[in-house]
């Protein structure tokens, strides 16, 4: 089957073909390190970064650029609304030793849409063409693009966008299998990815609604994609890549049995290591919102952490929750 192969993006070989999605507030250095430690992930993304502001960000202090040497390969995702920031952004990404550059054409957030970026930009093929051509000219790194399925009223138009991206030298497209206005709770439309696949030669990464090994298998089979990307599923079960890669690709897990409590506490330690004091608690709260879903009474963990006023208080409350709940392991 196609998905049993390595994902080749220019000189970069990606194995296994499993990616951590770009997610604001979640796909930061601590979560990226955690999933690397737990194993089974082949490709990492940053959260979306403003291409315009990127050149002025200081990597020694910016929480957005914080990165440790184990977080590899790491693709930096950027958003922009025209091609003017491309060259300076690429220069900065070379300095940061990015392994790849990803363009956000899928974010439906009103703020981005209003600015003509994210999924609004995907409706502007002329500018997309210019942007990708400029990226292609200014770097040898893989240039990838993340899109949604576009407008429901214009079904199939996203295939034209994919062809344009391929034509301008894009190396790979991640397709989040939802229309621009679909909510995250809507069932993903993996079969639409299969339609795009028929018209393209570059690899496709399928994204949306993968929360288990069975979802991963189904998504590969229905979409015919070369790789899959997980977002929320990776925040609720950071070990999910190791489960998928063991079952689908026969890659032995790094660790046999881990308590969820230990994984959570390791995450707090990584937050403490990587972020300044005032940047930790918000990230812990956001992560806990998803992680707590692994527990039958997880809402108690989520609300205990949510109402904490400091990291220490949140960790103490989480410990209390773990003490009074079954020792779940994976
Ligand atoms: C909290 C959050 C933040 C997100 N931020 C980004 C982002 O910065 N860039 C992006 O392309 N998509 C972003 N997404 C969308 C995800 O990358 C992914 O496409 C979406 O969550 C569907 O995948 P999933 O069902 O595996 O979560 C975000 C999603 C969530 C839940």
Write the layout of secondary structure elements.
Blueprint lengths: L6 E3 L2 E3 L3 E3 L8 H10 L5 E2 L3 E2 L23 E6 L6 H10 L4 E6 L4 H5 L10 H14 L4 E5 L9 H11 L4 E5 L13 H9 L5 E4 L5 H11 L3 E4 L1 H5 L3 H10 L10 H15 L2 H15 L6 H9 L4 H13 L7
Parallel strand pairs: 3-11, 4-6, 5-6, 6-7, 7-8, 8-9, 9-10, 10-11
Antiparallel strand pairs: 1-2
Helix pairs in contact: 1-10, 2-4, 7-9, 10-11, 11-12, 12-13
Q: What's the CATH H-level homologous superfamily of the largest domain?
A: Aldolase class I
CATH architecture of the largest domain: Alpha-Beta Barrel
Number of discrete domains: 2
What is the H-and-E element order? EEEHEEEHEHHEHEHEHEHHHHHH
Given the helix and strand composition, which structural class is it?
alpha/beta
Q: What's the pLDDT, averaged over the residues?
A: 95
Identify the CATH class of the largest domain.
Alpha Beta
Ligands bound to this protein structure: flavin mononucleotide
Helix fraction by DSSP (H/I, runs of at least 4): 40-55%
Q: Work out the strand percent.
A: 5-15%
Characteristic key phrases:
single chain, 330 residues, alpha/beta, TIM Barrel, nine-stranded parallel beta sheet, two-stranded antiparallel sheet, 13 helices, 11 strands, globular, binds flavin mononucleotide
Describe the protein.
The protein has 330 residues and is α/β, with parallel strands linked by helices. It has two domains: 2-249, Aldolase class I (TIM Barrel, Alpha-Beta Barrel), CATH 3.20.20.70; 260-324. It is 42% helix and 13% strand. The protein has 13 helices and eleven strands. The strands form two sheets. Strands 3, 4, 5, 6, 7, 8, 9, 10 and 11 form a nine-stranded parallel sheet that branches. It is globular. Bound molecules: flavin mononucleotide.
């Amino acid at each position: 089957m196609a998905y049993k192969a390595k994902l080749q993006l220019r000189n970069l070989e990606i194995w296994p073909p499993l990616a951590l999605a770009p997610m604001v507030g979640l796909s930061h250095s601590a979560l990226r390190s955690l999933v690397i430690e737990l194993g089974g992930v082949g490709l990492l993304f940053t959260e979306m970064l403003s291409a315009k502001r990127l050149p002025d960000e200081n990597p020694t202090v910016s929480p957005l650029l914080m990165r440790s040497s184990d977080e590899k390969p790491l693709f930096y995702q950027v958003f922009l609304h025209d091609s003017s920031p491309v060259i300076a952004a690429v220069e900065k990404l070379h300095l940061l030793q990015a392994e790849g550059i990803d363009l956000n054409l899928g974010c439906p957030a009103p703020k981005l849409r209003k600015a003509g970026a994210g999924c609004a930009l995907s409706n502007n093929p002329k500018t997309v063409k210019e942007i990708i051509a400029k990226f292609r000219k200014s770097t040898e790194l893989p240039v990838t693009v993340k899109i949604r399925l576009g407008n429901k009223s214009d079904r199939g138009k996203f295939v034209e966008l994919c062809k344009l991206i391929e034509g301008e030298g894009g190396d790979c497209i991640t397709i989040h299998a939802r229309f621009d206005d679909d909510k995250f709770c809507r069932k993903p439309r993996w079969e639409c990815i299969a339609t795009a696949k028929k018209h393209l030669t570059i690899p496709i990464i399928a994204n949306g609604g993968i929360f288990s090994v069975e979802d991963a298998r189904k998504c590969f089979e229905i979409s015919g994609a070369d790789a899959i990307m997980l977002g929320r599923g990776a925040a609720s079960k950071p070990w999910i890549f190791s489960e998928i890669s063991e079952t689908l690709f026969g890659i032995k897990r790094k660790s046999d049995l881990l308590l969820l409590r230990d994984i959570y506490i390791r995450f707090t330690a990584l937050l403490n290591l990587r972020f300044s004091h005032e940047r930790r608690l918000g990230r812990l709260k956001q992560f806990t919102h998803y992680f707590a879903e692994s527990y039958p009474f997880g809402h108690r963990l989520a609300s205990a952490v949510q109402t904490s006023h400091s990291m220490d208080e949140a960790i103490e409350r989480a410990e209390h929750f773990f003490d009074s709940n079954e020792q779940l392991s994976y």
